[in-house]
Amino acid sequence: MNGREINLNEYPKEFVLKNEERVKLRPLTKEDGKALLKFFSGLPEEDRLFLKHNVSDKNLIYSWVKNIDYGRVLPIVVEVDGEIIGEATLHMKKHGWFKDVGEIRLVIEPWYRRQRLGCHLICEMIYLAIKLGLEKIIVQLAADQEYEIRLFEMLGFRVEALLSNLLTDLKGKKRDLIIMVHDIDSVWRKTQCYGIFDLAAGF
What we know:
The protein is an alpha+beta fold.
């Protein structure tokens, strides 16, 4: 695992959302193909436009769960009553220039947005990045994902680049790409991420 090891035995974790509903976090497993496909298939079309892959492709989803490699992509899912309602992934390189850099990707069912679930998942990714000894985390967003950009800024990410017309969404529309960066070697290494929720109450 990039010369790094992480103990996943601390999962599952549970926490309570802003609406007082209790949810569970755990790593994705090889048995999650059907549940993951149901989650992605239930996303509104406008949400799927911002994803890098065609998540309605059953073969693609089942190939993901069949070939899980926690040292390359570390996926954490959120469950309510056995149903997946969100997923965050930490993407890593095992070798090369980017071996100390992780990339976050995040998807949440619309019903559970603005319930602090996004905060919890991003914080969990930062926590895992710290445990793995990564130096930086990046996230790539379409420039018109204003809500998500504000959320990542609230949690310590900064905009490093804007690339015009770099993206082509699933409908063929061109979009600008924003790259945001979080420096792990900062106060986050010495503090608890979960203390920020009062500052991000609207998310």
